[in-house]
Amino acid sequence: MKSITYSEDQLLPISAIAHFCYCERRYALIHLEQLWAENRFTVEGEILHERVHAEHHESRKYFRQEYSMAVRSLAWGLIGKCDLVELWLNKDGSRQKVSPVEFKRGRKKESDVDRVQLCAQALCLEEMLGVTIESGQFYYWQEHRRSDVLIDQALREVTIGLLERIRALQDSGQTPQAEYEKRKCDNCSLVDSCMPKSTNARAKQVERFIQNNLHLIKEL
Ligand code: SF4
């Protein structure tokens, strides 16, 4: 276990990992410049999570389900919410197994981003509950079925490396330039604020101007 290094106001939201993986500029617009806009995908995600919390809660003698569980880790500097945490108990009441479950729209297609977010939830639960988490699950709403994810060393290393990159961007305070990519920009809720085509073109114009006038700048 890592020693405690982060204070409450330094905690990164687990949801920020998805923004960063989708586009580093998107992360910076939301988390450095405090911009946010909804689109179909963000609204569908919220509706799904509301439905999750209205679902059946199961509780037996040695098994419990906790929906919408707030989690955090001061060691890893993370804060967030698990859609569902399942806990299996031993007869003496101690925890035998803990597993986070993340609900997804549509069919099975989890990406590394999804796995990293699940791993971040597991890191928080391990610190909060004093357990080791070996696996989690995704639940696919459209298919009504679950898929297992191993929280192994490789996934932990990817997650920790990503957290370091996010913190480096956060500490730099610099919003990266826009790079227009049809596939991601056309589905991004921030496209109107970001203006990836024009901001990219403007940045290139400035760069060209500097290159063309480098000799003048050197003479100054
Ligand atoms: S519009 Fe494109 S470049 Fe801009 S934040 Fe969204 S994904 Fe990133």
Automatic annotation (TrEMBL):
GO MF: exonuclease activity; iron-sulfur cluster binding; metal ion binding
Cofactors (names): Mg(2+); Mn(2+); iron-sulfur cluster; [4Fe-4S] cluster
Enzyme class: hydrolase
Pfam family, one: Cas_Cas4
Cofactor note: Mg(2+) or Mn(2+) required for ssDNA cleavage activity.
Domain of life: Bacteria
Keyword presence, Transit peptide: no
Protein name per its UniProtKB record: CRISPR-associated exonuclease Cas4
Organism: Termititenax aidoneus
Gene symbol of the encoding locus: cas4
